[in-house]
Amino acid sequence: MRSEEEVNQAVELYADTVRRICLMHLKNDADTEDIFQTVFVKYLLHTAPFASAEHERAWIIRVTINACKDLLRSVFRRRTVSLEEASELSAPPEEHRAVLQAVQGLPAAYRNVVYLHYYEGYTAPEIAQILGKNVNTIYTRLTRARGLLRQALGGDDDA
Amino acid sequence: MHEKLRAALDSVHAEPELKAATRAAVARRIRQRPARALRLAPAVCAVMVILGGPWLYFTPTAHISIDINPSLELGINRFDRVISVEGWNDDGTALAETLDVTHLSYTDAVEHILSSDPVQTLLESDAAVEIGVFGDNASHCARLLAGVEACTNGRQNAHCYQAGSEEVEQAHNCGLSYGKYRAYLELAALDPSVTVEQVQGMTMRQIRERIAALSDSAPAAGSAETPVSGNHQNQQTGPGHHGAGHHGE
């Protein structure tokens, strides 16, 4: 088991990354809090060393994506969200709201690919490795996601 | 679009409250680990009892050797229950087959054996009975010896003793129960020509009478042993006997 200090450092380092992935998949802050706790408790219990900082980052991303999938799949996730909780939903900044809503509107399988490629800068083979998918599948998803985003946002495609 | 996406996602940050809640959850988890382990302790104990209980019950921790002519050995577990009955000669095997003392407490088993018809018949004809307790745990054996002594209290021709496991192993290697092996050693000290095979066919009374006869007729046979009386009241220092002994009063 890792030390509390190590985990706190990881929270500082990767909290924004985890938050962005949660934003792509989840609808409320209560679920986001669950995912944070799941990811960083797993990090606490994960004793195998990471080969590099990049390896550690990829591990956090993969665990977060899997945790989101599990949460959404869970048959126990029939929790009602109180009005107070619902009101706490974090609204993205006004100028970026349309872009983020367009990404959230993509099919679930495309959201991770878009995030990993356009934001984290991973190549298709790297994304294939992280998500455990075929490289060609990643290329296909990227192409389709790009088309859907163009439709949603209109304008140019500088990707 | 690439820049728009990057800028939009760059604007998303984890709220300080979210990070604080995560840190608190991790700290709680670290503190809960021992408590959780303790909560699991009863379940772990139950599993150990279920899985290890039969092993604990059916593993003998001591043996009680009963020698008259029938030679028997009772396997006793740590709960003082009889878990095996083994005959060490033909008479002993025959007697073991008629006895139903498994799972009885060792005191009930010894009383049952001593009051059984074949044994009663022998004792009425002045046969000697030797009851030995042996095992690796000296304190357990001492407790068993006290119980056996209580069972034989009042029997003139009964002798109880405690022995070590190594001596018992030597007896078993000779194909004898420990009580008879002790008597054999005593006899062999007086009569070196006696063989294990001869002793196997003799009753304890016959061996004792032979020892007594040799002791009386040939005190110079080289033994510094205490002479053995007919009712075996002085066998404590016999060869091969390294434990405490008790004679029935």
Could you describe the 3D structure shown?
The complex is a heterodimer of chains A (159) and B (249). Chain A contains eight helices and no strands. By secondary structure, chain A is mostly helical. Chain A folds into two domains: 1-90, Orthogonal Bundle (Rna Polymerase Sigma Factor, Chain: A), CATH 1.10.1740; 92-159, Arc Repressor Mutant, subunit A, CATH 1.10.10.10. In chain A, helix 1 crosses helix 3 (53-73), helix 2 packs across helix 3 (53-73) and helix 6 packs across helix 8 (135-153). The longest helix of chain A has 22 residues, at 4-25. In chain A, 33% of the residues are buried. The mean pLDDT of chain A is 84. Helix content of chain B is 54%, strand content 15%. Chain B contains ten helices and six strands; from the N terminus they run ααβββαααβαβααααβ. Chain B has a six-stranded mixed sheet, sandwiched between helices. Chains A and B meet through helix 1, helix 2, helix 5, helix 6 and helix 8 of A and helix 1 and helix 2 of B.
Task: Please specify the SSE layout and strand pairing.
The complex is a heterodimer of chains A (159) and B (249).
Chain A: H1 4-25, H2 29-45, H3 53-73, H4 83-87, H5 97-104, H6 108-119, H7 124-131, H8 135-153
Chain B: H1 2-10, H2 16-58, E1 60-67, E2 71-77, E3 82-87, H3 90-98, H4 106-114, H5 117-124, E4 129-135, H6 138-152, E5 158-163, H7 165-173, H8 178-190, H9 196-200, H10 204-217, E6 245-247
Helix pairs in contact in B: 4-6, 7-8, 8-10
Helical content band of chain B: 40-55%
Mean pLDDT across all residues of chain B, rounded? 78
| Strand and helix order of chain B | HHEEEHHHEHEHHHHE
Structural class call of chain A reads mainly alpha
